[in-house]
Amino acid sequence: MGKLQSEFGTSANTALDNPATLKMINEKAGSFTVPDDFKGNPTEFTRRCKDGLQRLMGDEYMLAIQNEKGFDLKTALGKLPASETPTSLHYRAGVIENRVIVAGEKIDSENRLRSATMDQQHFLETSTAALREESARSGTVAADGQITDFAKQSYKAGLKPADIANYAALTAGVEIPAATVAATTALPKPKDESKVTAPTPTPAATPIAAAP
């Protein structure tokens, strides 16, 4: 990321409860009405809905950062009716990401991701991919592992260490122990952060690809 700090929204987020976050995402994905063409395979419908939901919640999370507001998962999920489908969830995400232009729409900048915010999101996608890989490999996300490295860099991008753990839970269902979250969010802001630009994400992991 080559943006200056002043171009980024400043995160107002605190650490989400990891188990509760994963549970809420799973329950919401399973609550959507299964259409007739998926009656024979409702599990696949739910899986696809979860993919779309995770993408959408990641975008909603980034909007909260952009608008310098705290993210409320319960409120964000509550806006979605039972009639949502994988297609409609990805469509909602596409609008936020400026991939979909709605005819006659008056663009509300608070509901569309800016270029600088998408740079922040790319950083979080990279950290999420690394944490997901670590969790799959070792069975956990260690407090002294990669999450610490990303957390230390987070301030440079207008983010907080909590955003590293939150985004991984919201968009990839990464289980992170409470002790790891606590240790990560307790990391202090470096004293010289006002003099630096946002970091280039480490190439250790590949960012999560958006679902089709």
Describe the structure.
It is a single chain. This protein is mostly helical and 212 residues long. It has one domain (5-195). The chain is 50% helix and 0% strand. The protein is built from eight helices and no strands. It has helices at 18-29, 42-66, 73-78, 86-96, 115-138, 146-154, 161-172, 178-185. Helix 2 crosses helix 5 and helix 2 (42-66) packs antiparallel against helix 7. The chain is globular. The two termini are 25 Å apart. Mean pLDDT is 88; it is low at 1-6, 194-199 and 201-212.
Strand content: under 5%
Shape by Cα distribution? globular
- Total number of helical segments? 8
Q: What's the order of the H and E elements?
A: HHHHHHHH
Radius of gyration: 17 Å
Measure the end-to-end span. 25 Å
Which regions contain 5 or more consecutive residues with pLDDT less than 50?
1-6, 194-199, 201-212
Structural domains: how many: 1
User: What is the count of β-strands?
Assistant: 0
Supply the helix-strand structural class: mainly alpha
Mean pLDDT metric: 88
The main pleated sheet reads as: none
The portion of residues assigned to helices is: 40-55%
What's the short version?
This protein is mainly alpha-helical and 212 residues long. 50% of the residues lie in helices and 0% in strands. It has one domain.
Summarize the topology:
Blueprint (H helix, E strand, L loop, with lengths): L17 H12 L12 H25 L6 H6 L7 H11 L18 H24 L7 H9 L6 H12 L5 H8 L27
Helix pairs in contact: 1-2, 1-7, 2-4, 2-5, 2-7, 5-6, 5-7, 6-7
